[in-house]
């Protein structure tokens, strides 16, 4: 069954906040310029804004889920100051090789697999074909394509280096604001037979 709501799925690190490896400390958090305004504009345009983030630092034992939740609460407060909100957070704590205990496993949620997007679509009544995935890595693009979304790369974070790996029909934008404005204004339809 197809959902009825449109969403913009956002990667976290390198897309909303400045890329810092295994970020979990609030004092290390730094928002990418204009990210709060971009998210607010998406909110106002009627999109659900859903964060989907790989967090193998949990599986590796660098931090736990409570510390991640505290950081996300801090991010929500910072975004709220600008009138922006995240409608839902999804994270994958697993890693198939470097995870410890029950976190060491092959899973369906770790991007480039689409599990987080598919779960969000089920939970939130999202029409994936009418939705977008924005991130700074090829894994984000592949997850979006696998879920049936329209993917966009941002050049922040790892994006500049990853841009050369993109399929020819996927667009790259300077940052989340540039991508959000194009989404809101309406992107042209995808060509048929997209493949990674």
Automatic annotation (TrEMBL):
What's the protein name? D,D-heptose 1,7-bisphosphate phosphatase
Site feature: Contributes to substrate recognition: 110
Query: What's the cofactor?
Result: Mg(2+); Zn(2+)
Instruction: Write out the residues that bind Mg(2+).
Output: 11, 13, 136-137
Q: Name one GO cellular component term.
A: cytoplasm
Q: Where in the cell is it found?
A: Cytoplasm
Enzyme class, top EC level, equals hydrolase
Instruction: Name a Pfam family for this protein.
Output: Hydrolase_like
Q: Name one GO molecular function term.
A: metal ion binding
